[in-house]
Design goal:
This protein is an alpha/beta fold and 497 residues long. It is built from 12 helices and 14 strands.
Length: 497
Protein backbone atom coordinates (compact mmCIF):
# COMPACT_ATOMS: atom_id res chain seq x y z
CA UNK A 1 0.00 0.00 0.00
CA UNK A 2 1.28 3.48 -0.85
CA UNK A 3 2.39 5.50 2.19
CA UNK A 4 -0.25 8.22 1.54
CA UNK A 5 -2.98 5.56 1.34
CA UNK A 6 -1.76 4.07 4.61
CA UNK A 7 -2.01 7.47 6.27
CA UNK A 8 -5.65 7.88 5.19
CA UNK A 9 -6.49 4.34 6.34
CA UNK A 10 -4.87 4.99 9.68
CA UNK A 11 -6.75 8.29 10.07
CA UNK A 12 -10.09 6.57 9.32
CA UNK A 13 -9.35 3.81 11.81
CA UNK A 14 -8.54 6.36 14.48
CA UNK A 15 -11.91 8.10 13.97
CA UNK A 16 -13.87 4.85 14.23
CA UNK A 17 -12.07 3.39 17.24
CA UNK A 18 -11.05 6.64 18.90
CA UNK A 19 -7.70 4.95 19.12
CA UNK A 20 -4.36 5.56 17.51
CA UNK A 21 -2.23 3.82 14.96
CA UNK A 22 1.43 3.73 14.03
CA UNK A 23 2.44 5.29 10.73
CA UNK A 24 5.40 4.06 8.75
CA UNK A 25 8.33 6.49 8.79
CA UNK A 26 8.50 8.74 5.72
CA UNK A 27 10.97 7.71 3.01
CA UNK A 28 14.23 9.60 3.35
CA UNK A 29 14.69 12.42 0.88
CA UNK A 30 17.40 11.66 -1.64
CA UNK A 31 20.03 14.32 -2.18
CA UNK A 32 23.05 14.77 -4.41
CA UNK A 33 24.32 11.67 -6.20
CA UNK A 34 21.71 9.51 -4.49
CA UNK A 35 19.14 11.09 -6.80
CA UNK A 36 20.77 9.21 -9.67
CA UNK A 37 19.23 5.75 -9.72
CA UNK A 38 20.42 4.66 -13.15
CA UNK A 39 23.70 5.23 -14.99
CA UNK A 40 23.83 4.50 -18.74
CA UNK A 41 27.17 4.47 -20.58
CA UNK A 42 27.03 4.63 -24.39
CA UNK A 43 30.38 3.74 -25.96
CA UNK A 44 30.95 4.82 -29.58
CA UNK A 45 34.08 4.41 -31.71
CA UNK A 46 37.26 6.04 -32.84
CA UNK A 47 36.99 9.82 -32.90
CA UNK A 48 39.29 12.40 -31.34
CA UNK A 49 37.75 15.49 -29.77
CA UNK A 50 39.08 17.77 -32.50
CA UNK A 51 37.86 15.41 -35.22
CA UNK A 52 34.19 15.78 -34.21
CA UNK A 53 33.88 18.63 -31.69
CA UNK A 54 36.82 20.84 -32.66
CA UNK A 55 34.43 23.59 -33.81
CA UNK A 56 32.13 23.45 -30.76
CA UNK A 57 31.63 27.03 -29.52
CA UNK A 58 33.48 27.72 -26.29
CA UNK A 59 35.33 24.41 -26.22
CA UNK A 60 39.10 24.00 -26.43
CA UNK A 61 39.07 23.21 -30.13
CA UNK A 62 40.78 23.76 -33.45
CA UNK A 63 40.89 27.54 -33.11
CA UNK A 64 43.09 27.17 -30.03
CA UNK A 65 45.65 24.94 -31.75
CA UNK A 66 48.97 26.66 -32.35
CA UNK A 67 51.50 25.75 -35.06
CA UNK A 68 53.59 24.10 -32.35
CA UNK A 69 50.63 21.79 -31.66
CA UNK A 70 49.71 20.87 -35.22
CA UNK A 71 52.86 21.03 -37.37
CA UNK A 72 53.72 17.47 -38.31
CA UNK A 73 57.20 16.04 -38.74
CA UNK A 74 58.51 13.37 -41.07
CA UNK A 75 60.10 10.08 -40.05
CA UNK A 76 63.41 11.90 -39.51
CA UNK A 77 61.81 14.46 -37.17
CA UNK A 78 61.94 17.38 -39.62
CA UNK A 79 58.78 19.42 -40.27
CA UNK A 80 56.95 18.44 -43.43
CA UNK A 81 56.64 21.09 -46.14
CA UNK A 82 53.14 19.71 -46.86
CA UNK A 83 51.09 16.76 -45.74
CA UNK A 84 51.58 13.47 -47.58
CA UNK A 85 48.78 11.98 -49.68
CA UNK A 86 45.99 10.07 -47.99
CA UNK A 87 47.28 6.58 -48.63
CA UNK A 88 44.99 3.90 -50.00
CA UNK A 89 47.25 0.92 -49.78
CA UNK A 90 50.41 2.06 -51.56
CA UNK A 91 48.56 4.48 -53.79
CA UNK A 92 47.26 7.99 -53.14
CA UNK A 93 43.51 8.23 -52.59
CA UNK A 94 42.13 10.41 -55.44
CA UNK A 95 39.31 11.65 -53.17
CA UNK A 96 41.89 13.77 -51.34
CA UNK A 97 44.16 16.39 -52.92
CA UNK A 98 47.91 16.07 -52.70
CA UNK A 99 50.09 18.59 -50.90
CA UNK A 100 47.55 19.73 -48.33
CA UNK A 101 49.10 22.37 -46.04
CA UNK A 102 50.77 21.01 -42.92
CA UNK A 103 47.89 21.78 -40.58
CA UNK A 104 44.42 20.42 -39.71
CA UNK A 105 41.82 20.63 -42.49
CA UNK A 106 38.09 20.05 -43.01
CA UNK A 107 37.11 16.71 -44.54
CA UNK A 108 33.56 17.89 -45.20
CA UNK A 109 34.48 21.17 -46.92
CA UNK A 110 36.08 22.16 -50.23
CA UNK A 111 38.09 20.86 -51.92
CA UNK A 112 37.34 17.42 -50.39
CA UNK A 113 33.63 17.66 -49.56
CA UNK A 114 33.18 14.21 -48.03
CA UNK A 115 30.00 14.50 -45.93
CA UNK A 116 29.37 13.04 -42.49
CA UNK A 117 27.31 10.33 -44.18
CA UNK A 118 30.33 8.96 -46.06
CA UNK A 119 32.80 6.61 -44.39
CA UNK A 120 36.50 7.24 -44.90
CA UNK A 121 39.15 4.57 -44.92
CA UNK A 122 40.27 3.27 -41.54
CA UNK A 123 43.39 4.61 -39.83
CA UNK A 124 45.87 2.63 -37.80
CA UNK A 125 45.24 3.02 -34.06
CA UNK A 126 47.52 0.89 -31.95
CA UNK A 127 49.19 0.98 -28.56
CA UNK A 128 52.77 1.81 -29.53
CA UNK A 129 51.88 3.97 -32.53
CA UNK A 130 49.62 6.17 -30.42
CA UNK A 131 52.56 6.84 -28.09
CA UNK A 132 54.79 7.77 -31.00
CA UNK A 133 52.09 10.03 -32.41
CA UNK A 134 51.73 11.85 -29.09
CA UNK A 135 55.53 12.17 -28.93
CA UNK A 136 55.80 13.30 -25.34
CA UNK A 137 52.86 15.71 -25.69
CA UNK A 138 54.01 17.42 -28.89
CA UNK A 139 51.37 15.57 -30.97
CA UNK A 140 53.62 16.07 -33.99
CA UNK A 141 54.01 12.50 -35.25
CA UNK A 142 50.41 11.62 -36.03
CA UNK A 143 51.23 11.57 -39.74
CA UNK A 144 54.63 9.97 -39.30
CA UNK A 145 53.23 6.93 -37.47
CA UNK A 146 49.98 6.57 -39.45
CA UNK A 147 49.21 4.31 -42.37
CA UNK A 148 46.66 6.82 -43.70
CA UNK A 149 48.87 9.80 -44.47
CA UNK A 150 47.11 13.16 -44.30
CA UNK A 151 43.77 11.67 -43.19
CA UNK A 152 44.87 11.76 -39.56
CA UNK A 153 44.78 15.60 -39.64
CA UNK A 154 41.21 15.79 -40.95
CA UNK A 155 38.21 17.00 -38.94
CA UNK A 156 34.53 17.82 -39.44
CA UNK A 157 32.03 20.51 -38.65
CA UNK A 158 29.83 18.41 -36.40
CA UNK A 159 27.24 21.11 -35.75
CA UNK A 160 24.61 19.40 -37.92
CA UNK A 161 24.83 16.17 -35.91
CA UNK A 162 21.93 15.42 -33.58
CA UNK A 163 24.17 14.45 -30.64
CA UNK A 164 25.88 17.86 -30.99
CA UNK A 165 22.47 19.35 -30.13
CA UNK A 166 22.38 17.28 -26.94
CA UNK A 167 25.87 18.59 -26.10
CA UNK A 168 24.56 22.13 -26.45
CA UNK A 169 21.73 21.41 -24.03
CA UNK A 170 23.67 19.52 -21.38
CA UNK A 171 27.39 19.08 -20.58
CA UNK A 172 30.29 18.55 -22.99
CA UNK A 173 33.62 17.56 -21.43
CA UNK A 174 36.50 18.97 -23.46
CA UNK A 175 39.36 17.63 -21.33
CA UNK A 176 38.52 13.91 -21.43
CA UNK A 177 41.17 11.40 -22.58
CA UNK A 178 41.10 7.78 -23.65
CA UNK A 179 42.12 5.59 -20.74
CA UNK A 180 44.82 3.63 -22.56
CA UNK A 181 47.09 4.24 -25.53
CA UNK A 182 46.03 2.58 -28.75
CA UNK A 183 42.91 0.89 -29.97
CA UNK A 184 39.43 -0.27 -29.17
CA UNK A 185 40.34 -3.61 -27.61
CA UNK A 186 42.48 -2.20 -24.82
CA UNK A 187 40.22 0.79 -24.16
CA UNK A 188 37.15 -1.40 -23.78
CA UNK A 189 39.01 -3.32 -21.11
CA UNK A 190 40.05 -0.10 -19.43
CA UNK A 191 36.40 0.99 -19.42
CA UNK A 192 35.38 -1.98 -17.28
CA UNK A 193 38.48 -2.75 -15.20
CA UNK A 194 41.11 0.01 -15.64
CA UNK A 195 43.48 -2.84 -16.35
CA UNK A 196 45.64 -4.33 -19.07
CA UNK A 197 45.10 -8.04 -19.74
CA UNK A 198 47.88 -10.54 -19.31
CA UNK A 199 49.10 -13.03 -21.93
CA UNK A 200 52.28 -14.47 -20.45
CA UNK A 201 52.43 -17.41 -22.86
CA UNK A 202 52.02 -15.43 -26.05
CA UNK A 203 54.30 -16.75 -28.80
CA UNK A 204 57.30 -14.71 -29.90
CA UNK A 205 55.72 -13.74 -33.23
CA UNK A 206 52.97 -11.84 -31.37
CA UNK A 207 55.35 -9.81 -29.23
CA UNK A 208 56.18 -6.25 -30.24
CA UNK A 209 59.70 -5.19 -31.18
CA UNK A 210 60.40 -1.76 -29.68
CA UNK A 211 63.34 0.63 -29.65
CA UNK A 212 64.94 2.49 -26.77
CA UNK A 213 62.16 5.10 -26.82
CA UNK A 214 59.48 2.45 -26.44
CA UNK A 215 58.29 2.95 -30.04
CA UNK A 216 57.84 0.19 -32.58
CA UNK A 217 60.72 -0.60 -34.86
CA UNK A 218 60.11 -0.33 -38.61
CA UNK A 219 60.61 -3.16 -41.04
CA UNK A 220 63.67 -3.18 -43.31
CA UNK A 221 62.73 -1.34 -46.49
CA UNK A 222 60.03 0.74 -44.83
CA UNK A 223 59.73 4.17 -46.56
CA UNK A 224 62.12 6.65 -44.99
CA UNK A 225 59.63 9.46 -45.57
CA UNK A 226 55.84 9.51 -45.20
CA UNK A 227 55.78 11.46 -48.46
CA UNK A 228 56.86 8.26 -50.21
CA UNK A 229 54.49 5.86 -48.46
CA UNK A 230 53.10 4.69 -45.15
CA UNK A 231 55.64 3.36 -42.65
CA UNK A 232 55.77 -0.39 -42.07
CA UNK A 233 56.20 -1.43 -38.45
CA UNK A 234 57.24 -4.58 -36.64
CA UNK A 235 54.02 -4.67 -34.66
CA UNK A 236 52.61 -7.16 -32.24
CA UNK A 237 49.61 -7.83 -30.04
CA UNK A 238 51.61 -8.30 -26.86
CA UNK A 239 54.31 -6.32 -25.03
CA UNK A 240 57.71 -7.97 -24.69
CA UNK A 241 56.85 -8.78 -21.04
CA UNK A 242 53.48 -10.38 -21.76
CA UNK A 243 50.70 -7.79 -21.60
CA UNK A 244 48.06 -7.91 -24.32
CA UNK A 245 47.72 -4.38 -25.78
CA UNK A 246 46.51 -4.76 -29.36
CA UNK A 247 43.52 -6.72 -30.60
CA UNK A 248 43.37 -10.29 -29.34
CA UNK A 249 40.44 -12.65 -29.67
CA UNK A 250 38.48 -14.11 -26.77
CA UNK A 251 38.50 -17.80 -25.98
CA UNK A 252 34.73 -17.71 -25.67
CA UNK A 253 32.30 -17.23 -28.53
CA UNK A 254 31.56 -14.83 -30.11
CA UNK A 255 35.15 -14.81 -31.33
CA UNK A 256 36.83 -14.41 -34.69
CA UNK A 257 38.50 -17.71 -33.90
CA UNK A 258 35.85 -20.24 -34.87
CA UNK A 259 35.09 -23.35 -32.84
CA UNK A 260 36.99 -26.50 -33.68
CA UNK A 261 35.13 -28.65 -36.20
CA UNK A 262 34.24 -31.32 -33.66
CA UNK A 263 34.80 -29.27 -30.52
CA UNK A 264 32.61 -27.36 -28.10
CA UNK A 265 30.77 -24.75 -30.18
CA UNK A 266 30.83 -22.27 -27.28
CA UNK A 267 34.61 -21.91 -27.41
CA UNK A 268 37.28 -20.86 -29.88
CA UNK A 269 39.42 -23.57 -31.44
CA UNK A 270 41.90 -24.46 -28.67
CA UNK A 271 44.66 -25.05 -31.21
CA UNK A 272 44.59 -21.33 -32.11
CA UNK A 273 46.08 -18.69 -29.83
CA UNK A 274 43.48 -16.60 -28.02
CA UNK A 275 43.71 -14.41 -24.94
CA UNK A 276 43.62 -16.59 -21.82
CA UNK A 277 40.48 -15.99 -19.73
CA UNK A 278 41.17 -13.05 -17.43
CA UNK A 279 40.61 -12.93 -13.66
CA UNK A 280 41.34 -9.28 -12.87
CA UNK A 281 38.63 -7.40 -10.97
CA UNK A 282 36.06 -5.58 -13.12
CA UNK A 283 33.48 -2.95 -12.27
CA UNK A 284 30.96 -5.75 -12.80
CA UNK A 285 32.54 -7.70 -9.94
CA UNK A 286 32.34 -4.75 -7.57
CA UNK A 287 28.76 -3.93 -8.58
CA UNK A 288 27.67 -7.54 -8.03
CA UNK A 289 29.44 -7.70 -4.68
CA UNK A 290 27.37 -4.74 -3.49
CA UNK A 291 24.11 -6.09 -4.96
CA UNK A 292 23.88 -3.33 -7.59
CA UNK A 293 22.17 -4.53 -10.76
CA UNK A 294 24.01 -4.06 -14.06
CA UNK A 295 24.26 -5.31 -17.65
CA UNK A 296 26.36 -4.96 -20.80
CA UNK A 297 24.14 -4.57 -23.87
CA UNK A 298 25.55 -5.08 -27.36
CA UNK A 299 24.03 -4.54 -30.78
CA UNK A 300 23.69 -7.87 -32.65
CA UNK A 301 24.75 -9.92 -29.59
CA UNK A 302 22.07 -12.58 -30.07
CA UNK A 303 22.78 -12.89 -33.79
CA UNK A 304 26.51 -13.15 -33.15
CA UNK A 305 25.98 -15.83 -30.52
CA UNK A 306 24.18 -17.96 -33.09
CA UNK A 307 26.54 -17.21 -35.94
CA UNK A 308 29.82 -17.58 -34.04
CA UNK A 309 29.06 -21.00 -32.63
CA UNK A 310 29.74 -22.63 -35.97
CA UNK A 311 32.70 -24.76 -37.02
CA UNK A 312 35.56 -23.11 -38.85
CA UNK A 313 34.34 -24.22 -42.28
CA UNK A 314 30.79 -22.82 -41.85
CA UNK A 315 29.71 -19.43 -43.26
CA UNK A 316 30.20 -16.68 -40.69
CA UNK A 317 27.82 -13.87 -41.53
CA UNK A 318 27.52 -11.57 -38.54
CA UNK A 319 31.15 -11.20 -37.57
CA UNK A 320 32.32 -10.51 -41.11
CA UNK A 321 32.58 -6.91 -42.27
CA UNK A 322 29.41 -5.93 -44.08
CA UNK A 323 29.08 -3.06 -46.53
CA UNK A 324 25.37 -3.63 -47.14
CA UNK A 325 24.05 -2.42 -43.79
CA UNK A 326 23.63 -5.94 -42.38
CA UNK A 327 24.68 -6.51 -38.76
CA UNK A 328 28.39 -6.35 -38.11
CA UNK A 329 29.37 -7.64 -34.70
CA UNK A 330 32.86 -6.72 -33.48
CA UNK A 331 34.12 -9.38 -31.10
CA UNK A 332 36.88 -7.34 -29.47
CA UNK A 333 34.36 -4.68 -28.43
CA UNK A 334 32.86 -7.04 -25.82
CA UNK A 335 35.22 -6.80 -22.84
CA UNK A 336 33.38 -8.99 -20.32
CA UNK A 337 33.59 -11.88 -22.79
CA UNK A 338 37.33 -12.07 -22.03
CA UNK A 339 36.80 -12.85 -18.32
CA UNK A 340 36.49 -16.28 -16.70
CA UNK A 341 33.57 -15.12 -14.55
CA UNK A 342 31.49 -14.73 -17.73
CA UNK A 343 32.44 -17.99 -19.40
CA UNK A 344 29.79 -19.88 -21.38
CA UNK A 345 27.33 -21.60 -19.10
CA UNK A 346 27.94 -19.35 -16.09
CA UNK A 347 25.04 -17.60 -14.32
CA UNK A 348 26.85 -14.25 -14.63
CA UNK A 349 27.00 -14.51 -18.41
CA UNK A 350 23.29 -15.13 -18.69
CA UNK A 351 22.47 -12.40 -16.20
CA UNK A 352 24.73 -9.61 -17.43
CA UNK A 353 25.53 -9.99 -21.17
CA UNK A 354 22.53 -9.00 -23.25
CA UNK A 355 21.31 -7.85 -26.66
CA UNK A 356 20.37 -4.29 -27.64
CA UNK A 357 16.75 -5.38 -28.02
CA UNK A 358 16.60 -6.01 -24.28
CA UNK A 359 17.97 -2.54 -23.62
CA UNK A 360 15.21 -0.95 -25.70
CA UNK A 361 12.54 -3.10 -24.08
CA UNK A 362 13.82 -2.15 -20.62
CA UNK A 363 13.80 1.56 -21.45
CA UNK A 364 10.25 1.40 -22.74
CA UNK A 365 9.08 -0.37 -19.59
CA UNK A 366 11.11 1.91 -17.32
CA UNK A 367 13.00 -1.09 -15.99
CA UNK A 368 16.77 -0.92 -16.52
CA UNK A 369 19.48 -2.21 -14.21
CA UNK A 370 21.13 0.43 -12.07
CA UNK A 371 24.18 0.47 -14.36
CA UNK A 372 23.88 -0.21 -18.09
CA UNK A 373 26.65 -0.21 -20.69
CA UNK A 374 25.68 -0.09 -24.36
CA UNK A 375 27.89 -0.93 -27.34
CA UNK A 376 26.36 -0.26 -30.78
CA UNK A 377 26.94 -2.83 -33.50
CA UNK A 378 29.65 -2.08 -36.05
CA UNK A 379 27.64 -0.28 -38.73
CA UNK A 380 26.31 2.14 -36.08
CA UNK A 381 29.43 2.79 -33.99
CA UNK A 382 31.05 5.55 -36.17
CA UNK A 383 34.28 3.59 -36.74
CA UNK A 384 36.15 4.75 -39.89
CA UNK A 385 36.44 2.10 -42.55
CA UNK A 386 33.14 0.34 -42.01
CA UNK A 387 30.83 2.99 -40.54
CA UNK A 388 30.00 6.60 -41.27
CA UNK A 389 29.55 9.26 -38.59
CA UNK A 390 25.98 10.32 -39.30
CA UNK A 391 24.29 6.90 -39.04
CA UNK A 392 25.81 6.18 -35.66
CA UNK A 393 25.17 9.67 -34.37
CA UNK A 394 21.50 9.46 -35.35
CA UNK A 395 21.28 6.07 -33.67
CA UNK A 396 22.70 7.39 -30.41
CA UNK A 397 20.50 10.48 -30.51
CA UNK A 398 17.41 8.31 -31.01
CA UNK A 399 18.39 6.24 -27.97
CA UNK A 400 18.88 9.40 -25.92
CA UNK A 401 15.44 10.58 -26.97
CA UNK A 402 13.94 7.24 -26.03
CA UNK A 403 15.43 7.41 -22.53
CA UNK A 404 14.28 11.00 -22.08
CA UNK A 405 10.73 10.02 -23.04
CA UNK A 406 10.72 7.08 -20.60
CA UNK A 407 9.94 6.90 -16.88
CA UNK A 408 13.68 6.42 -16.29
CA UNK A 409 14.70 9.92 -17.34
CA UNK A 410 13.99 11.70 -14.05
CA UNK A 411 16.59 9.62 -12.19
CA UNK A 412 19.12 8.77 -14.92
CA UNK A 413 22.62 9.96 -15.82
CA UNK A 414 23.87 9.16 -19.33
CA UNK A 415 27.51 9.27 -20.39
CA UNK A 416 28.18 9.26 -24.13
CA UNK A 417 31.82 8.87 -25.09
CA UNK A 418 34.20 7.18 -27.52
CA UNK A 419 36.58 4.35 -26.87
CA UNK A 420 39.59 6.04 -28.47
CA UNK A 421 40.70 8.53 -31.10
CA UNK A 422 40.82 6.12 -34.03
CA UNK A 423 44.20 7.45 -35.16
CA UNK A 424 42.93 11.01 -35.61
CA UNK A 425 45.06 13.94 -34.40
CA UNK A 426 44.09 16.09 -31.44
CA UNK A 427 45.95 19.20 -30.37
CA UNK A 428 45.78 18.79 -26.58
CA UNK A 429 48.65 16.96 -24.92
CA UNK A 430 47.48 14.08 -22.72
CA UNK A 431 48.38 14.49 -19.04
CA UNK A 432 51.16 12.44 -17.49
CA UNK A 433 49.91 9.04 -16.46
CA UNK A 434 51.44 5.59 -16.36
CA UNK A 435 52.74 2.95 -18.70
CA UNK A 436 49.32 2.36 -20.23
CA UNK A 437 47.98 5.88 -20.75
CA UNK A 438 46.07 8.09 -20.88
CA UNK A 439 46.05 8.48 -24.63
CA UNK A 440 44.62 11.16 -26.89
CA UNK A 441 41.62 13.40 -26.11
CA UNK A 442 38.14 12.17 -27.05
CA UNK A 443 34.60 13.59 -26.83
CA UNK A 444 32.44 12.93 -23.77
CA UNK A 445 28.92 14.15 -22.96
CA UNK A 446 27.05 14.00 -19.67
CA UNK A 447 23.28 14.08 -20.21
CA UNK A 448 20.84 14.04 -17.32
CA UNK A 449 18.16 16.13 -15.60
CA UNK A 450 20.95 16.77 -13.08
CA UNK A 451 23.66 17.66 -15.63
CA UNK A 452 24.73 21.28 -15.92
CA UNK A 453 22.87 22.93 -18.78
CA UNK A 454 24.71 24.37 -21.74
CA UNK A 455 27.99 23.73 -19.95
CA UNK A 456 31.52 22.92 -21.05
CA UNK A 457 33.34 20.99 -18.36
CA UNK A 458 37.10 21.59 -18.44
CA UNK A 459 37.83 19.13 -15.61
CA UNK A 460 40.56 16.61 -16.41
CA UNK A 461 39.00 13.20 -17.04
CA UNK A 462 39.82 9.92 -18.72
CA UNK A 463 37.95 6.66 -19.33
CA UNK A 464 38.62 5.55 -15.76
CA UNK A 465 36.60 8.56 -14.58
CA UNK A 466 33.49 6.58 -15.57
CA UNK A 467 34.51 3.79 -13.20
CA UNK A 468 35.19 6.37 -10.51
CA UNK A 469 31.76 7.93 -11.00
CA UNK A 470 30.00 4.55 -10.74
CA UNK A 471 32.13 3.65 -7.72
CA UNK A 472 31.33 6.89 -5.94
CA UNK A 473 27.61 6.76 -6.63
CA UNK A 474 27.18 3.21 -5.33
CA UNK A 475 29.90 3.31 -2.64
CA UNK A 476 31.89 0.49 -4.23
CA UNK A 477 35.38 -0.76 -3.57
CA UNK A 478 37.68 1.34 -5.83
CA UNK A 479 39.46 -0.39 -8.69
CA UNK A 480 43.25 -0.03 -8.41
CA UNK A 481 43.81 1.17 -11.98
CA UNK A 482 41.41 4.14 -11.82
CA UNK A 483 43.74 7.13 -11.93
CA UNK A 484 43.78 9.37 -8.87
CA UNK A 485 44.59 12.51 -10.88
CA UNK A 486 41.42 12.21 -12.95
CA UNK A 487 38.05 13.63 -11.95
CA UNK A 488 35.02 11.48 -11.24
CA UNK A 489 32.52 13.38 -13.46
CA UNK A 490 30.69 14.94 -10.51
CA UNK A 491 31.73 18.44 -11.67
CA UNK A 492 29.33 17.97 -14.58
CA UNK A 493 26.30 17.83 -12.27
CA UNK A 494 24.21 20.44 -10.46
CA UNK A 495 21.80 18.89 -7.96
CA UNK A 496 20.19 22.21 -7.07
CA UNK A 497 18.11 21.95 -10.25
Amino acid sequence: MHVTTKRWACFAAALITLGGCTLPPPAPTKTGLDRIEHIVVIYAENRSFDNLYGLFPGANGIANATPAQYTQVDRDGRPLAALPPVWKGKDADPAFPRDLPNRPYRIDAAPINLPLSTATRDLIHEFYRNQEQIDGGRNDRFVAASDAGALTMGYYDGSSLPVWKWAQQYTLADNFFMGAFGGSYLNHLWLICACTPVDRDAPANLRAQVDERGWLKTRPGSPSSVLAGAPEFLGGEVTPDGYSVNTAQPRYQPSRVAPAKDGDARYADPTKHTLPPQTLTTIGDTLSAKGVSWAWYAGAWDAAMQDSMQPADAPRRVIATRADGAPYFVTHHQPFNYFARFAPGTPDRALHLKDYRELVAGIDKGELPQVAFYKPEGVLNQHPGYADILSGDEHIAALLGRIKASPLWATTAIIVTYDENGGFWDHVAPPAGDRWGPGSRIPALIISPFARRGYIDHTQYDTTSIIKFITRRFALQPLPGARAQMGDLTAAFDFSQ
